């Protein structure tokens, strides 16, 4: 009978009720791409864009890196509902037979294989072979829905391993059976090294059938009492249902404010029991987002990679507010429930949980600003919520509090680019107040990575204000205390603030920040020809190598990178940098040689080996390098190297080769999208009049459907002539039927709508764009 049952399941898997023709953008997404080495928050299929629920299988638990779902594993430990930046919670698993939940996941986990598994946007299915249970998962934003088909005549059970370690530990939990079809409870995540306070997740669970038995355990022992409630550390529970040939449906609603909030989320988003309807709704929502960029090509693999990258750019960061805008503020001594502002339509802005936006000026802030301005607007409002609550605009909040992830103040270019893109539905005066505060001692810059002391000084702002640079070896706690990187990034952030100040008519502040933006000069060592870290007395550090296998010397002063890469980190003044390097020809010769060396190792290094490569596209600091040729009079070299890097790093879609570095919640997916579109801004959009530098797109044509709430044009279209492998050079261009001989477009040209036609070839046109 079991073999017959499995055969029937295979028919269901091969002909799912929600199958779509492969003609829409959502059909090209490959959710399993890169999952061989994924992080905790990497793999999510039963998830909406920025969804609170990230319902996915876990094959590994107990860490951030190589944790969650890994493609090479053979067992599924649980399905859990939250995979966010330092967030996790509510592990469940259907089972048959005698319950063994108290023995832990190592005992009750199930075998599976990829032949009996499928993943698509908003949907995941797998056969749990140990139990013969076909498991299907989908979700709304805040509600996960499960559909379990059990073997005939078996007791149908579901584990709730409430205190199981997932990404990290659970401090305590509770569960109460409210009635014969409903459970409610909470899970409090323990503090972590990056999220310094506990954070509580509330849930409501509803079943399509009546519960026949509620069992509980504490530690390694089952509990024999007949009460409907359990709470405390180390607890778990299971429920059992009568045998039935009908699938068991389960809805799990989440909230970070209260059980009542979870119930309201459930009633608002998933009041019905139609699993296939929820799958279709999820598919439609994803397809609407992905369809903002419409690409045409006969290269199916390129199309799959493009929409997978775009999916990642909308996937990794999480909504943590309820449908009514309620969210948990955890910046004070006790958690408080607050509400977000509302937009012009009266809809609450979402409040987000997100990994650092370090490097976002070369990734998500550009992509969102161009294609999803409403998302940029939401993130600006979230950061202002944090400023109102805790006194600092963050660089990566988790659990309603600061994490101080990475370094500097990447919010400065984020807000500046939003303003200059024309995205301004946020409190500009409040933002300026917070951004200005961040740029002085006591602001966010003064906190080194994960430095939580209120008197933090590991960011070295006193040194920066006094001397124009941050030296090595300064006092203070935290990580990433890399003075040279801090100096270079602070200078760019100062320029971003200067641009915003100019736009706001604040000339005095603009002059001050413009002056500070030249501080990159303080690190220029003419003798070595590189940016070089300094000691507090102004002398150069002695043990200095710009690149090499001796990581200690190569990375001293540089955050997850080296001087060979960070020397080019001057987005605010590419021409000033070119002058330091000896002029156009010297820059181009040097950078071209450096990228050739990077090409030999596919522009990647193993994670943790930062500093050993001449061009490391596994991490943020190198991203802008290939566009520098544009500013040095040789745009054809930008075209060449963007094409080479795109093919080496952003082309594969397999579990093993698709994302070989730290994807960082969509940042490198965004880079892949921008490269494939042939549009990028080396200055991160922060300038008063942003431009988009042009390289060869990967497609015959692409159409950006502009958001009419922000941009007046309906569409901006790029069409290529001569699209073929190797044709990476722009021979000529026409913008709106007029000859265009610039390597850039104004942002206003793009958002006003129009058409750019690019003629491509295998040989450069040395006069175009020069």
UniProtKB/TrEMBL annotation:
Its EC number is 3.2.1.-. It is an enzyme of class 3 (hydrolase). Residues 1-19 form the signal peptide. SUPFAM superfamilies: Six-hairpin glycosidases. Residues 262-761 form the Glycosyl hydrolase family domain. Residues 28-255 form the Glycosyl hydrolase family 92 N-terminal domain. It holds the Pfam family Glyco_hydro_92. The keyword Signal applies. Its cofactor is Ca(2+). GO terms for molecular function: hydrolase activity, acting on glycosyl bonds. Keywords: Calcium, Glycosidase, Hydrolase, Signal. Monomer. PANTHER family: PEPTIDE N-GLYCANASE PNGASE -RELATED, SECRETED PROTEIN. This is GH92 family glycosyl hydrolase.
């Amino acid at each position: 009978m079991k073999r017959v049952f499995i055969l029937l399941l295979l028919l269901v898997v091969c002909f799912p009720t929600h199958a779509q023709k492969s003609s829409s953008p959502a059909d090209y997404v490959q959710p399993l791409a890169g999952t061989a080495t994924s992080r905790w928050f990497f793999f999510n299929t039963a998830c909406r864009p920025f969804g609170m629920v990230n319902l996915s299988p876990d094959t590994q638990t107990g860490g951030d890196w190589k944790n969650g779902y890994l493609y090479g594993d053979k067992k599924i430990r649980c399905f859990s509902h939250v995979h966010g930046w330092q967030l996790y919670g509510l592990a469940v698993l259907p089972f048959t037979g005698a319950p063994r939940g108290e023995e832990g996941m190592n005992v009750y986990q199930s075998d599976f294989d990829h032949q009996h598994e499928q993943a698509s946007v908003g949907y995941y299915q797998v056969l749990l072979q140990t139990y013969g249970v076909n498991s299907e998962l989908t979700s709304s934003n805040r509600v996960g829905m499960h559909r379990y088909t059990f073997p005939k005549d078996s007791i149908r059970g579901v584990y709730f391993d409430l205190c199981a370690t997932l990404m990290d530990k659970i401090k305590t939990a509770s569960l109460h059976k409210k009635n014969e079809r409903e459970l409610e409870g909470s899970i409090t995540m323990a503090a972590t090294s990056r999220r310094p306070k506990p954070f509580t997740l509330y849930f409501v669970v509803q079943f399509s059938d009546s519960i026949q038995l509620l069992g509980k355990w504490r530690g390694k022992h089952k509990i024999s009492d007949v009460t409907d409630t359990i709470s405390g550390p180390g607890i778990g529970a299971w429920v059992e249902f009568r045998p039935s040939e009908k699938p068991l449906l389960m809805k799990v609603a989440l909230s970070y404010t209260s059980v009542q909030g979870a119930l309201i989320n459930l009633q608002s988003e998933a009041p019905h029991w139609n699993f296939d309807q929820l799958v279709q709704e999820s598919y439609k929502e994803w397809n609407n987002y992905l369809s903002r960029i419409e690409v045409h090509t006969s290269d199916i693999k390129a199309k799959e990679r493009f929409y997978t990258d775009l999916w990642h750019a909308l996937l990794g960061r999480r909504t943590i507010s309820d449908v009514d805008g309620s969210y948990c503020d955890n910046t004070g001594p006790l958690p408080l429930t607050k509400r977000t502002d509302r937009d012009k339509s009266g809809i609450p802005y979402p409040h987000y949980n997100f990994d650092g936006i370090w490097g976002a000026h070369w990734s998500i802030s550009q992509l969102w600003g161009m294609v999803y301005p409403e998302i940029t607007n939401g993130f600006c409002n979230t950061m202002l919520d944090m400023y109102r609550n805790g006194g600092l605009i963050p660089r990566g909040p988790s659990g309603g509090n600061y994490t101080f992830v990475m370094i500097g103040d990447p919010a400065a270019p984020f807000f500046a680019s939003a303003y200059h893109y024309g995205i301004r539905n946020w409190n500009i005066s409040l933002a300026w107040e917070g951004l200005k505060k961040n740029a002085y001692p006591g602001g966010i810059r003064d906190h080194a990575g994960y430095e939580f002391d209120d008197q933090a000084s590991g960011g070295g702002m006193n040194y920066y204000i006094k001397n124009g640079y941050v030296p090595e070896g300064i006092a203070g706690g935290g990580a990433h205390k890399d003075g040279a990187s801090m100096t270079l990034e602070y200078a760019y952030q100062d320029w971003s603030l200067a641009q915003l100040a100019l736009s706001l008519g604040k000339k005095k502040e603009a002059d001050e920040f413009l002056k500070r933006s030249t501080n990159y000069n303080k690190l220029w060592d003419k003798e070595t020809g590189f940016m070089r870290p300094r000691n507090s007395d102004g002398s150069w550090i002695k043990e200095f190598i710009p690149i090499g296998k001796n990581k200690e010397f190569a990375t001293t002063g540089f955050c997850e990178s080296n001087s060979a890469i960070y020397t080019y980190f001057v987005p605010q003044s590419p021409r000033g940098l070119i002058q330091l390097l000896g002029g156009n020809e010297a820059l181009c010769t040097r950078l071209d040689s450096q990228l050739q060396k990077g090409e030999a190792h596919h522009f990647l290094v193993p994670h943790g080996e930062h500093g050993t490569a001449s061009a490391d596209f596994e991490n943020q600091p190198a991203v802008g390098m290939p566009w520098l040729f544009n500013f040095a009079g040789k745009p054809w070299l930008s075209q060449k190297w963007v094409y080479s890097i795109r093919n080496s790093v952003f082309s594969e879609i397999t579990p093993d080769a698709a994302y070989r570095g730290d994807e960082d919640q969509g940042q490198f997916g965004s880079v892949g999208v921008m490269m494939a579109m042939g549009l990028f801004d080396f200055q991160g959009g922060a300038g008063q009049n942003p431009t988009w530098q042009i390289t060869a797109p990967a497609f015959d044509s692409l159409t950006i459907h502009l958001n009419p709430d922000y941009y007046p044009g309906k569409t901006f279209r790029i069409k290529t002539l001569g699209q073929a492998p190797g044709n990476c050079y722009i021979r000529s261009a026409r913008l709106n039927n007029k000859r265009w001989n610039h390597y850039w477009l104004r942002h206003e040209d793009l958002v006003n709508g129009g058409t750019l036609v690019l003629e491509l070839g295998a040989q450069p046109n040395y006069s175009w764009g020069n």
